[in-house]
Design brief:
The complex is a heterodimer of chains A (738) and B (100). With 738 residues, chain A is mainly α. Among the domains of chain A are: 207-267 and 297-628, no CATH class; 635-737, no CATH class. Helix content of chain A is 73%, strand content 3%. Chain A has helices at residues 3-9, 17-32, 38-65, 94-120, 128-150, 154-172, 187-217, 222-232, 238-254, 263-266, 272-281, 286-293, 295-299, 302-324, 329-349, 353-394, 399-407, 425-434, 436-439, 451-454, 456-470, 476-491, 493-518, 525-528, 535-550, 563-572, 582-604, 617-620, 622-628, 633-712, 717-737, and strands at residues 71-81, 84-92. In chain A, strands 1-2 form a two-stranded antiparallel sheet. In chain A, a hairpin with a 2-residue loop joins strand 1 and strand 2 (84-92). The radius of gyration of chain A is 36 Å and the shape is elongated. Chain B is 78% helix and 0% strand. The longest helix of chain B has 31 residues, at 57-87. In chain B, helix 1 (4-24) packs antiparallel against helix 2 (28-53) and helix 2 (28-53) packs antiparallel against helix 3. The chains are: A mainly alpha (738), B mainly alpha (100).
Chain lengths: 738, 100
């Protein structure tokens, strides 16, 4: 196709390159990567992701010149069995291209950032093969995510859904033989397994929903399913209720909603770019995308919609409370992500698809920014730690080092380990304490403080991200969150108040984080000597910061500025665009400012000292304890599900399988009967009395006959001759007289 | 002209005498002579039938039989000499080493 033709009619033929571009990058790194330097590997991967971004832009352009008309690009035949007919078809419409732009755009920036980050990670240890593997996984993730959003059927979506789940597993457990501090442990791989298994529960829901669709509508293709739902022409019919609620299980798994959110905080065990890309910006929004994509089904099931919205709202508030009590910089952001995903799910549950999508996009910008900045902070502390260690070793000998060691705040309390069931963990911990390199946790906010002086660029970037997340005018988060709140205030008062409370807490915990990390005095040698990150890391952050500031422009609540609403309207139908409600916006902004003020009052005015417990601990008492321990949800799951499950498994393995099946049924009944039958029946009777007897009789008979015959063989030739002659006479006689 | 039956009967008598000699006598030389007698009984029958049928086939057979008998006697006598050399005795009842 010629370029001019394409410019006029669209670049839809490029659609497969959404998937193939990252795959090509992955293959280049996989096959030739051994000879590449780290920089080349990173560049190839970033270019591959960038190519996907270019394709996404061209596709978005193509959709826009075709007035938002949906296009299908059929790549290959996949499954044709009976009524089931599925092709690998790319669905290019305004919704999928929006997702593609977010995924490849944010993804490319994170690829670039990762080139700088991965090299410096404390766990990296100059393992070049790991560097290459990391980028191969990242590219694989981009490809899977593209399959997910570009799929034209629920099954194709599921292929991507599983693909990103796999990449998430691979990347959470990227340093599978270490814990988050680089010590030898299985904590990271445990976290990866947890994510995978919890997601499996969600996938089960998704699959059941898909089966129900096929059972009822004989198709998995989006439009045909929607057609089938429309043909039911019933509100809250059991079929759609079942489908939508099972889909919700899938959404809860992938998008970390109650009750399946527990994997996401542990997923922070992965490298920080992974946390930003997969566990904040893109993969976890797949559930939100799924609901928006299934909007026609949800539209006929208002009851299910309500459940979705409530799930999201409760998750938003619940996760926000936990975020307040966390000390790990990434854990705070992880719970914040769950909370924000709750906002999105609540929005799409209320039918405010544009608002949900809008928040998805702005959240991708500012949460990626926050995570990557947090990574920068962690590395800055790491550098400062090395610096301090080095200085202590070089200038003084023993004494200052000891002093530095004593300065290390006790960090055991409240610092959650990802793993469960590591019995030797405490011992390991105690041992590690001797070597200060081992115990220093660069992600613990209690080790930070005063970083705004040593890491100014990161500080400002983090501030932008925080303000955007807190929802302060005119940053991106303000517009998107406000749209959700506005929608909720009009239709669902309960949800409105839940979300407003969550928004208040959001501003509070982000304020707490800012004061703890960047203000006050350094609480650790490492924080005092922290160093700014290189340009390859900060430049992508600047781009994300710009997007976090200006992202709100996508969909301003003024007449003529509902760009995103109009754009998505092509796919999900034109939706009512709400004007700015000053009351709702005012309340949320005022609450956010109030929350930041309170956080300043608690954490900013009197900065945390070394070894000082959290100032909220005393006034809130058990409530803070609950927030700190994540409301014991993991422990409850342990007690309610994992322990009984293990016990049942043990019971099944030991009692049912081993003792009953093996010892009793197999050994006693089957083997015993067999032995008895063979010993008594077969051996004693059949074998000895029949078969042996016959064989013995045969032998005896042979002996007897041969004894008789032996007498004939007397050696006298004459007698032989006589018998010959008699024989001849007999035969002749017979011949003559016959 | 003597009828052919007489020749055949004579031949049968000669054969029976020869067979009995083989079965009864213990001297291997006598047994040999008895075998010769049986062969010649056969020869007599051949010749008799040859003259009855006006055909030379029987007479040609007789030549072969005589030649084979000569060869047989040569081999047999050599065997008997060898047996006498090893056993110093040619009693036929002592030659029973074929007994099973």
């Amino acid at each position: 196709m010629h370029l001019s033709e394409a410019i006029n009619s669209g670049f839809f033929f490029l659609a497969p390159w959404l998937v193939f571009a990252p795959i090509v990058g992955l293959l280049i790194n996989l096959i030739f990567g051994r000879q590449f330097s780290e920089k080349t590997v990173g560049t190839v991967a970033s270019l591959a992701s960038g190519a996907a971004f270019v394709v996404s832009v061209l596709l978005a352009y193509s959709v826009s010149i075709n007035h938002g008309e949906m296009m299908r690009w059929r790549l290959a035949e996949w499954i044709h069995i009976g009524q089931l007919s599925l092709d690998w078809t790319f669905r290019i419409d305004s919704l999928s291209t929006t997702m593609m732009l977010v995924i490849s755009g944010v993804g490319t920036l994170i690829h670039i950032y990762a080139i700088g980050y991965m090299h410096e990670d404390v766990r990296f240890k100059n393992d070049v093969g790991r560097f290459r593997r990391f980028f191969i996984f990242l590219n694989l993730f981009i490809a899977s995510m593209m399959i997910l959003v570009s799929g034209d059927s629920y099954l194709m979506l599921f292929v991507g859904w599983e693909g990103v789940g796999l990449c998430s597993f691979l990347l959470i457990g990227f340093w599978y033989e270490m814990d988050i501090l680089g010590r030898s442990s299985w904590a990271n791989s445990d976290a990866a397994k947890k994510a995978f298994i919890v997601n499996r529960v969600g996938d089960f829901g998704f699959l059941i929903a898909a089966f129900l669709m096929f059972w009822n509508f004989h198709s998995l293709q989006f439009d045909e399913v929607f057609e089938g739902v429309r043909a039911l022409s019933a509100i809250n019919s059991p079929v759609t209720i079942a489908i939508t609620l099972f889909l919700l299980v899938g959404v809860a798994g992938k998008s970390a909603q109650i009750p399946l959110y527990i994997w996401l905080p542990d997923a922070m065990a992965g490298p920080t770019p992974v946390s930003a890309l997969i566990h904040a910006a893109t993969m976890v929004t797949a559930g939100v995308y799924l609901v928006i994509r299934s909007a026609p089904i949800y539209a006929t099931a208002p009851d299910a919609q309500h459940v979705v919205a409530m799930t999201g709202a409760v998750t938003a508030l619940f996760a926000a409370t936990i975020a307040v009590g966390q000390y790990d910089i990434k854990k705070v952001l992880a719970y914040s992500t769950i909370s924000q995903l709750g906002f999105m799910v609540a929005a799409v549950g209320m039918g405010a698809y544009v608002a949900g999508m809008f928040h998805l996009i702005t959240h991708a910008f500012f949460k990626a920014l926050l995570f990557l900045s947090a990574g920068s902070v962690i590395l800055g502390l790491e550098r400062g730690h090395h610096h301090a260690e080095h200085a202590a070793h070089a200038h003084h000998d023993e004494k200052p080092k000891k002093k530095a060691k004593n300065n290390i705040p006790s960090k055991v309390e409240g610092h959650e380990e990802v793993s469960h069931g590591h019995d030797d963990h405490e011992a390991e911990h105690g041992e590690a304490r001797v070597e200060s390199v081992e115990t220093f946790d660069p992600g613990d906010m209690r080790n930070m403080g005063g970083l705004r002086k040593t890491m100014p660029v990161t500080f400002w970037l983090y501030m932008i991200g925080t303000v955007a997340l807190a929802g302060i005018f005119p940053f991106a988060g303000f517009w998107s969150k406000d749209e959700i709140l506005l929608d909720a205030s009009l239709h669902f008062t309960t949800i409105y108040w839940l979300l407003t409370a969550a928004a208040f807490l959001t501003a509070f915990y982000m304020g707490r984080q800012i004061w703890m990390v960047f203000f006050g005095e350094p609480r650790h040698e490492a924080a005092a000597h922290a160093e700014e990150s290189p340009k390859v890391m900060t430049l992508p952050l600047v781009v994300l910061a710009v997007l976090s500031v200006a992202g709100g422009a996508l969909n301003l609540p003024f007449e003529g500025f509902h760009n995103l609403g109009h754009w998505l309207g092509y796919t999900i139908g034109e939706v009512e665009s709400l004007p700015l409600d000053l009351k709702v916006a005012g309340i949320s902004t005022a609450l956010a400012l109030l929350a930041i003020l309170i956080s300043w009052f608690i954490y900013g005015r009197n900065p945390l000292k070394v070894n000082q417990p959290d100032p909220l601990k005393k006034p809130l008492g058990p409530i803070f304890k609950g927030m700190e321990s994540k409301w014991m949800v993991d422990e409850i799951y342990q007690a309610l599900i994992i322990t009984p499950f293990t016990k049942i498994s043990y019971f099944l393995a030991d009692v049912i399988d081993w003792r009953f099946w093996h010892d009793f049924v197999h050994d006693k009944v089957i083997a015993g009967t067999y032995n008895w039958v063979s010993e008594i029946g077969l051996n004693r009777y059949a074998d000895q009395k029949v078969i042996d007897a016959f064989a013995n009789w045969l032998a005896d008979a042979t002996q007897w006959v041969s004894a008789a015959m032996r007498k004939v063989q007397n050696g006298f030739v004459r007698s032989y001759a006589l018998s010959v002659m008699l024989g001849v006479v007999l035969i002749l006689g017979y011949l003559i007289f016959k | 002209m003597v009828p052919v039956d007489y020749y055949i009967i004579l031949s049968a008598i000669l054969f029976t005498i020869g067979a009995l000699g083989v079965l009864i006598r213990r001297n291997p030389l006598i047994i040999f002579m008895s075998i010769e007698l049986m062969l010649n009984a056969g020869n007599l029958a051949f010749v008799a039938f040859s003259s009855v049928h006006k055909s030379f086939d029987g007479q040609i057979f007789v030549f072969f039989v005589i030649a084979v008998a000569a060869a047989e006697v040569a081999v047999g006598l050599a065997l008997i000499v060898e047996i006498f050399k090893t056993k110093k005795n040619i009693n036929i009842d002592d030659m029973n080493s074929l007994k099973g």
